[in-house]
């Protein structure tokens, strides 16, 4: 039986899928009763991931993360760094600070709280 992935490994897989053609598969990483929070939205339950993706669609054409540091326990991981990418108006952005807090149980995301400076930096 394969080992259960660490919270950091699950978060890194989430980030990897968000940056490529697997973006629509991120829901596979979430528990059925998952909760996703952002400063302006909250998504819960089996459709949380797809609702989250729909919420992000009007914000930017693409975005990626530059990791600064990770803080990890047995059941949670915090990722801190900056976002960069292109917004839906075609304007490039970079250096947008973010903090993501993931709670992971049995290799699946139970909760993720996402904060970033997109509004502060004029991206949204």
* Rg for CA atoms: 14 Å
CATH topology: Nuclear Transport Factor 2, Chain: A
Number of domains: 1
Q: Write down the overall mean pLDDT.
A: 90
Distance between the termini: 44 Å
User: Major sheet: order of its strands?
Assistant: 2-1-6-5-4-3
Task: Sum up the overall morphology in one term.
Answer: globular
CATH-defined architecture: Roll
Q: How much helicity do the residues have?
A: 10-25%
CATH class: Alpha Beta
Report the major sheet: 6 strands, mixed
Q: Which structural class is indicated by helix and strand composition?
A: alpha+beta
Number of strands: 6
Overview in brief:
The chain has helices spanning 7-18, 48-56, and strands at 30-38, 41-44, 60-72, 76-87, 92-105, 108-116. With 124 residues, it is α+β, with helices and mostly antiparallel strands.
């Amino acid at each position: 039986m394969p080992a259960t992935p660490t919270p950091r490994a699950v978060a890194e897989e989430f980030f990897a899928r968000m940056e490529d053609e697997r973006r629509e598969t991120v829901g596979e990483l979430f528990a059925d009763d998952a909760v996703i929070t952002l400063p302006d939205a909250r998504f819960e339950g089996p459709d949380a991931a797809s609702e989250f993706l729909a919420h992000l669609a009007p914000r930017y054409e693409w975005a990626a993360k530059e990791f600064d540091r990770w803080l990890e326990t047995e059941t949670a991981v915090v990722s801190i760094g900056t976002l960069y990418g292109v917004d839906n108006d075609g304007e490039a952005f970079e250096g947008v600070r973010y903090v993501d807090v993931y709670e992971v149980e049995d290799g699946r995301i139970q909760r993720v709280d996402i904060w970033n400076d997109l509004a502060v930096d004029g991206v949204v």
